[in-house]
Amino acid sequence: MIASLPMYDRPENRAAHDAFYTAFRDTLGYGPAKLDRGIAYDASWAHPDLLLGQICNLPYRAAYRDRLVRLTNSAHALPDTPAGYYHSVFVVRAADADRGLAPACLGRFAYNDALSQSGWGAPLARVTEQGLTFHTTLRTGAHVDSVQAVADGAPDLAAIDAVTWGLLSKWEPKAKDLRVIGRTGLSPAMTFVTTPKHDPDALRAALTAALGTISPEQKTDMGLHGFKQLPDRAFDIPLAPAPQRPLHSA
Residue 245's pLDDT is what? Predict the structure, then answer.
């Protein structure tokens, strides 16, 4: 049995994640002693005895809708964003901020992964709505790597999960060199999941109780302020096509 909460886990908020998980396990009455930080995030989704995990809605829709049980979605307290949803922000170097999104798309777009809603699916949908296209794409592997790559001049534009951007704005030095020039549409926020062998109602109750035990500062550090159970239809979003003309990873 494993538990993994990798999506917003950083050295700066590790203690908050640990406090939240410990409260969850204590309320539930069973579970691994600690969060598993050694397993890759995508490997955790496929683990046959995942007790508690997090998944982005794009891989969930693409491969895990019939394999994992949705528990609830995060309420991140993002501006102009209802509970249970999130968006991404488009970022460029500060010197390019006045040019806007259309010229930025003519440069190199950095995405963390083709199965990332925040880094690829949502930004692709937004630029497509505006009649734009990404001229060239560059896979970086992680949002923080995209931020660092844009700051260093390799790509010109990236889309960063708004929760991640809030955390990186506090803790990643190179984020100060970037500016937000727009945002994507809304999609389901980070989803807490389990395997079918576990009781989802008990896990939902333990999640709610656990969040009530940690401090406001810890909630802010995690970017987690509540939960919202979304209907199945919220996940009926077309899958994004794969990036075209990708360059080598940054």
Answer: 60
